[in-house]
Amino acid sequence: MPSPRRNVEGRPLGASASSSSSGGGGGGPGSPTHGGGGGGSSSSSSSSSSRFEFQSLLGSRGSGADPTCARLRLSESPVHRRGSFPLAGAGPSQAPPPPLPEEDRMDLNPSFLGIALRSLLAIDLWLSKKLGVCAGESSSWGSVRPLMKLLEISGHGIPWLLGTLYCLSRSDSWAGREVLMNLLFALLLDLLLVALLKGLVRRRRPAHNQMDMFFTLSVDKYSFPSGHATRAALVSRFILNHLVLAIPLRVLVVLWAFILGLSRVLLGRHNVTDVAFGFLMGYMQYSIVDYCWLSPHNAPLLFALWNQQ
Ligand SMILES: CC(C)=CCC/C(C)=C/CC/C(C)=C/COP(=O)(O)O
User: Fold this and answer.
1) What single-letter DSSP state applies at residue 38?
2) Cα–Cα separations (whole angstroms), residue 122 to 109, 116, 118, 135
3) Residues 222-230, mean pLDDT to the nearest whole number
4) pLDDT grade, residue 91 (50/70/90)?
5) Labelling 152: which of 67, 75, 95, 123 has CA 20 to 30 A away?
6) Where is this region: Disordered (predicted)?
7) Which residues face 222 on adjacent strands?
């Protein structure tokens, strides 16, 4: 007697959606071709692989997927219709079911891109959890946590905004004001774009994160992208392009940006992809700022207003 085929979790197939699938070939209620069992004698490896694909598809569809309905799709898939794996109860006299629309057939074969993305996300979560060694005082590197939090403040929006405003108020050269005005514009643009993207993507922060950050906005409960990483990349590129610095200081600026990004993962605030994307986004934001560079020529009103103060 053939043993019942099981899904990837080891549960007998057909047990969850329909109790009438016992005996292998039985379909769901009212449908001879409904059967997830697929017939005792037809349990080949090829059939199993179709089923495996199908099971992963169910997972990808979320909790709203109806397994009964999905199994119906499998039994109607081109593979089954070709007749290599006849369904028990589906005799030759029965008319083949009408073909599915193209997009439904595509559903049964998750794309390479989908699989690659899922794998990347799985690696991301695993690696981020491993690297979250300062996520709490009791973590393996818990003693370094205060230092990491100091680094966190060095990349926070508030000190950068206040610092830029203060320097603007003290600046007595036009060239200095122009640069600082653009830095202010860059910082505000960054806050806006990060908040928009965080609100759009709504990726939760890692489970091991303690939400004990200094002064956050409501969107900062989300983690993609890392605002500290965008700021680090944006500000460091800005500084390297507009300040004349000795080589050791330039290296220090780059190191600061890199360690700040890394510290987000070590603190458990972010996953690796949040920080990697944040760096990329901050780097590109600088290009926007550079392209829209504010000067007394293209924003005379802004500079005139400043002059009156
Ligand atoms: C003018 C204005 C709206 C200032 C708000 C500045 C502020 C509170 C920025 C938030 C900075 C922050 C905590 C970002 C979160 O960084 P992640 O790296 O954790 O994403």
Assistant:
1) -
2) 20, 10, 6, 20
3) 98
4) very low
5) 123
6) 1-69, 81-106
7) 204
Q: Answer yes or no: is the C-beta of 209 below 6 A from any ligand 1 atom.
A: no
| Mean pLDDT, all residues of the chain | 76
Per-residue pLDDT at 162 exceeds 60: yes
User: Which ligand 1 atom sits closest to the C-alpha of 222?
Assistant: 20
Residues sharing a CB contact under 8 Å with residue 253, sequence separation 6 or more, in sequence order:
236, 239, 240, 245
- Return the pLDDT at 104: 54
For the annotated catalytic residues, the residue numbers are 228, 270
In the chain, the N- to C-terminal Cα span, in Å, equals 92
Those residues whose C-beta lies under 8 Å from the C-beta of residue 268, and which sit 6 or more positions away, are: 128, 132, 134, 135, 136, 139, 206, 208, 209, 210
Distance 214 CA to ligand 1 centre (A): 9
Q: Which of 189, 279, 283 is nearest to 238 (CA)?
A: 283
Predicted confidence (pLDDT) at residue 67 exceeds the cutoff of 60: no
Ligand 1 atom at minimum distance from 156 CA: 11
In this predicted structure, what is the pLDDT of residue 302?
83
Query: Which residue's CA is minimally distant from atom 8 of ligand 1?
Result: 216
> Three-state secondary structure along 194-234?
HHHHHHHHCCECCCCCCCCCCCCCHHHHECCCCHHHHHHHH
Please tell me the distance between residue 226's alpha carbon and the centre of ligand 1 in angstroms: 10
φ, ψ (nearest 5 deg) of residue 204: -70, 150
* CA-nearest residue, atom 15 of ligand 1: 227
Please report where in the chains the tokens 């379909």 appear, as a residue.
27
Place of tokens 């099971």: 55
Res. 75: pLDDT tops 50: no
Nearest to 147 by CA among 168, 167, 133: 133
